Input
Amino acid sequence: MGIFRRPELEKDNPVAPQLYVGPRRRHKLFQDAERDPSSGGDPLADTLQALSQAAKRFADSVPTLRHNQKERTALLKAIAEANRLLLKE
Output
């Protein structure tokens, strides 16, 4: 049983070996980071925008039912407020 243990998959293992990232993959990661439009701006605004987009997708995917209408309305109001704050900046 001990022969199949993988220490890199064990949680909180300080002696686990780091996964190898080759030069091609590292180069691609750097290119993707440079092309990412959110990498150069305000990190708080970028986080707020990503959060509001995810919340909007979630609110659109949840069916409108009577027992969750109050929470859905509160979520949509919070999304609208976040978008208003983002447009202000």
